[in-house]
Design goal:
Largest sheet: 7 strands, mixed
Oligomer: single chain
Helix content: 10-25%
Distance between the termini: 37 Å
Number of strands: 26
Strand content: 25-35%
Structural class: alpha+beta
């Protein structure tokens, strides 16, 4: 029997006394979370933001993990000093790591442990603190905040303000709940609207005190306090569009002056509480996942008859394409209700006329391009690899607008390719368009090609835009190079490429304000 998710757990991360790898400044730390995918293989599932010039960071980003009681879920938290803009952490200085199980965190609620280097030596005096909190409450808070007449902290320039929201923790200390972005050179800043789980902001208690601190940002990490105030969600929720709730920002050091009134006013323009559904809510509420396979037959793969070709099937009936289909299909088929997978190829010359085809069903049946299960997909691919000629061709097709927008269907496209993209601009436009649709795109890169173009399409570190500048409304692409998993268990590849699918499903339906199809709470009373 498959393990059942007991609950969701949210992990907040902070560190102290990190190694300082920079010469003229302090380290710029980031925390990456890895889940053990079998044996010695680890799959990265998420990472925090980078904090500039700080050896004692409190990370704003939280990790949300499904907790399975009967499964040993091994976690690794790795800290890096980020000195470049590439997504690959191997280019950055390693500051230390800590391994544990999710069960240990859940049972302890809060742990502080020393960080170690990869050879298990202590990472200086560096420590990591992880606080685990069960997410029982599906409610989220949407906040729009601005300020006016903040104190000027520089003689020749204006302040660079940002806000930090804190909630009281079980040990009586204030715990960081959210940090806004920095608004440069403004005394009347308007911060981007943001959302945060009600659990993270106030533990689900609308009357629990919240402390809000306003700082002037400094590149050195020594931010200057402008002022602070306390409130609660109940008070802030009185703000509606057109009717703000205002709070005086007070700096205790300045209260000694008789003429002192405040250090500015922070206005909550809107504060609304909504229920946000989880991946399991949609899955168990009737949403069907639909899995489609796209196989690259372009000429860069080589002649299938040559052992050097990526399409060549060795004596054991194996190549990287077939291994990728098997690994990912093993997981996906459990969620595809009919286990019938549309399977297509692109970039081949099709018999009997040997005309180049932009898109063809692997079973040569355009009216019924389905393969029954991952086994049939693999068998069909094996036949085609031995029969077809390849041709360099375009990769993308425009996503269809006929996809269901009602919360009942979600589509996952698995593209297996050698990574040679000849139409990057068209690909970007297609992905931006697809971000508005109920779909995710998984790209597995096979072979030893330069995958920088593929990594560019994965929106983990940037917001992908079309050539005209239109941004993707959400991240829908996950790219993984197969070569990283050649000696790993089959499950490792699937775990890595499918890690982002649940949050992508939730992101789409919540963005579109769609309920699970069988959710009775959304029915009219």
């Amino acid at each position: 029997m498959a393990a059942q998710c007991v609950t969701k757990v949210e992990l907040s991360i902070s560190c102290e006394n990190l190694l300082d790898k920079d010469i003229l400044s302090k380290s710029d730390p980031l925390c990456a979370l890895y889940i053990n995918a079998g044996g010695t293989q680890w799959a990265e599932v998420d990472r925090t933001e980078k904090i500039q010039n700080c050896l004692n960071p409190k990370f704003n980003k939280r990790f949300c993990i499904d907790y399975f009681f009967e499964v040993v879920q091994k976690l690794k938290f790795a800290i890096y000093d980020i000195d470049n803009r590439t997504y690959d952490l191997s280019d950055d200085d390693f500051l230390g790591e800590f391994e544990c199980t999710l069960g240990q965190l859940v049972s302890s609620k809060k742990v502080t442990r020393p960080l170690v280097l990869r050879d298990r030596r202590p990472a200086g005096r560096g420590t990591i603190t992880i606080e685990a909190e069960e997410l029982k409450d599906k409610r989220v808070v949407f906040l729009e905040v601005e300020a006016r007449k903040l104190d000027k902290k520089y003689f020749f320039g204006k302040s660079d303000p940002f806000l930090e929201f804190y909630k009281p923790s079980s040990d009586g200390r204030w715990q960081l709940a959210h940090r806004t972005e920095v608004i440069k050179n403004k005394l009347n800043p308007v911060w981007r609207p943001f959302k945060i789980s009600l659990q993270a902001l106030c533990g689900g208690d609308l009357f629990k005190p919240i402390k809000v601190e306003c700082y002037d940002y400094n590149n050195s990490g020594s931010h200057k306090l402008i002022g602070l105030f306390q409130t609660n969600v109940e008070r802030m929720s009185q703000a509606k569009l057109g009717s703000s709730v205002e709070f005086e920002c007070i700096n205790e050091k300045k209260k000694k002056k008789k003429s002192y009134k405040n250090s500015g006013v922070v206005s909550v323009k809107e504060c609304r509480i909504e229920c946000e559904y989880t991946f399991l809510d949609f899955l168990m509420g009737g949403c069907q996942l639909n899995f489609t396979v796209g196989i690259d037959f372009t000429g860069s793969n080589g002649d299938p008859r040559s052992p050097t070709s990526l399409h060549y099937i060795n004596p054991h009936g194996f190549n990287e394409y077939l291994a990728a289909i098997w690994s990912v299909g093993l997981v996906i088929q459990d969620y595809d209700y009919d286990k019938l997978f549309p399977a297509f190829g692109f970039g081949a010359q099709i018999p009997p006329t040997w005309q180049v085809s932009h898109e063809f069903p692997l079973n040569f049946n355009p009216s019924n391009p389905f393969c029954a299960g991952k086994e049939m997909v693999n068998e069909t691919c094996s036949f085609i690899f031995s029969q077809f000629r390849s041709e360099r061709l375009k990769l993308t097709e425009q996503p269809t607008e006929q996809m269901c927008h009602c919360g009942e269907q979600y589509y996952i496209l698995l593209i297996i390719t050698d990574g040679v993209i000849t139409d990057l601009d068209e690909t970007r436009s297609a992905i931006v368009n697809a971000s508005k649709l109920p779909m995710s795109i998984i790209i597995v890169g096979v072979g030893a090609a330069d995958f920088s173009a593929m990594e560019f399409l994965d929106g983990d570190n940037i917001v992908l835009t079309s050539p005209t500048g239109e941004p993707a409304i959400r991240d829908i692409v996950q790219f993984v190079p197969f070569r990283k998993f050649q000696n790993a268990p089959k499950e490792a590849l699937a775990q890595s490429v499918l890690a982002e699918v649940p949050q992508q499903v939730v992101s789409y339906f919540n963005t579109m304000k769609l309920h699970p199809p069988n959710d009775m709470s959304s029915a009219p009373s």
